[in-house]
Amino acid sequence: MIQVSAKDPITVRDLTMAYGSFVLQRDLSFAVKQGDIFIVMGGSGCGKSTLMRHLLGLNEPAQGEVFYRGESFTRAEPERRETLLQRIGVLYQSGALWSSLTLAENVSLPLGEFTDLNAAQQRDVAALKLALVGLAGFEDFYPSQISGGMQKRAGLARAMALDPEILCIDEPSAGLDPISSRLLDELIVGLRDSLGTTFVIVTHELQSIFDIGSNSVFLDAETRTMIAMGPPKELRDHSDNPTVRRFLTRGEVASV
Amino acid sequence: MDRISLSTTHTGILAAQPASLAVERAGDGTLVLRLGGDWLLREGVPSNEAVRRELESPPRPQRLAFDSSALGAWDTGLLTFLTSLRPLLEEHRFEVEREGLPEGVTSLIALAEAVPEKSDARAEGIERGVLERIGESTLEIGESLSEQLEFVGASAIAFGRMLIGKARYRRSELLLQIQQAGVEALPIVALVSFLLGLILAFVGAIQLQAFGAQIYVANLVGIAMARDMGALIAAIVMAGRSGGAYAAQLGSMNVNQEIDALQTTGISPLEFLVLPRMTALFLMMPLLSLYAAAVGILGGAAVGTGMLDLSLTTYYQQTVAAISLRDVLGGVMKGATYGILIALAGCLRGMQSGRSASAVGDAATSAVVTAIVAIIAAAGIYSAVFYVMGW
């Protein structure tokens, strides 16, 4: 059984995810260490995004527990959960910006709720965060007025608003051109190095998996559980599981 | 060259050769399928019946081979024909030699077979009995009832938190909702209630004129509007106008994961989204009810003065004498109740909405239907209670 330590930002123990009687994944156990860029990978439909929803309490586990810094999130009272969630920023697949608010308002809404900053300070912070993701000058645009890639970056700015300890990102490169996607990867590494943010990234984009991933877990749709764990490059070169190696080499290494 | 022969030549060049299928037995127990002509989806392809018959008649062949030397163009038509043979072949455990097929066909079939079918992904084909279906829908009713109760309870708690100033919502959002549910609804409410005032007065006038009591049209319209009709008209207009809009707004926010984003930011969607909408309708509906009643009475007055030769002063005095403060207060109270019902129905359906375009449409429809049913039911209950209490 996995050791739950107060030092680890996230620990998942014996997690089983199910929709009704349809079990998506079972017996997931892994720990995300401080400063990790932790990749959740696997073929489409294996439950990667659902795993993220479980980490955030949007779905309840059928079995098992999620711990934040050694404290059970699954068994926490709703109010405690809210407090724990404040340490986590989330970037959803589509950006999920609040469509009735401008970009600046999107970023400053969490600031207004959870800090004592006044309106002018909030706006400054929002402008800074937007500038970090290359959206300086777009403060007063509404989400519907900017492109999908920009929405995604604005979503990241919002997720970073409260300088979270952990940033969860669902498919960062989906809908981004190669250059923006590369810039996003660099931004992620930069944030990790400067602020010590821990990342959990759901993706199947091999390029970024190898570029930035420091640890990973591989979910298999066939056996419905995790079949590998470790740094992505090591898994590619040394994994004894043919499915994992095929995935990480785009099927170029024939199954053994 | 005349036009007819021209067109025949033209189609003669482009027309597909009809697909042909010949099933032949070779000496060594091999069944050879000779494919000829163009196997195109839009031209239709032969059925696999001939193959099935041949496979099942003794002596049974052991192998299946293809000869596609006479095959012309092909598309998905040929592929579906080949895949439709698969269950047959598996059933009889034939060997298949695919060498005779064009290369493109073999590689596409290999691609289709590359990922094995997920055994439990297909919906179960088992026919469910009547009893089972009745049972399931009964359970569903129970579940949705408890969901509705939970939502009502949670909304009440959120409302309480707003009263003690602890709820998190944006004031500007509340003001916007008040504007949309208030001022912007005035024209349509006015139009509908004026016309209903007219109709009511006409219906009454015909009956009352027979007794020479046309002055009582003012009582009829006045009391009906103040007690019931004003609130009811405003409620039904608002159910269509705001209730449907709330469901569509919240539903599309759900599709876009905006509600998830609120939740993980630690902001209660109930306080942030539902509360301003509910408060706006709760505050505006009583005013709209009064307004609808007043305009409805004007409609009645138009008939009274225009058709029944009553003077405006007489009509006014008769109306004022007929309506008591109790009637007006009753109308206002009903208006507030209907407002809450509309907001609850709209927001509940929106929050429950599925994550697709059609689910959002369903949510809007269901919100309006739920709201109207709830309004009529509440109106019935109010009437009965007021009658028993002698109001």
Question: What does this 3D model show about the protein?
Answer:
The complex is a heterodimer of chains A (256) and B (391). Chain A has 256 residues and is an alpha/beta fold. Chain A has nine helices and ten strands. Chain A has helices spanning 48-55, 78-85, 103-114, 119-132, 148-159, 178-195, 206-212, 232-238, 242-248, and strands at 10-19, 22-32, 37-42, 63-68, 71-72, 88-91, 166-170, 198-202, 215-220, 225-229. The two termini of chain A are 30 Å apart. Chain B is α/β, with parallel strands linked by helices and 391 residues long. Chain B has helices at 3-14, 49-56, 76-92, 103-114, 130-163, 171-181, 186-210, 217-255, 258-265, 269-307, 312-322, 325-352, 357-388, and strands at 20-25, 30-39, 63-74, 95-97. In chain B, strands 1-2-3-4 form a four-stranded mixed beta sheet, covered by helices on one side. Classes of the chains: A alpha/beta (256), B alpha/beta (391). At the A-B interface, α2 and α3 of A face α9 of B.
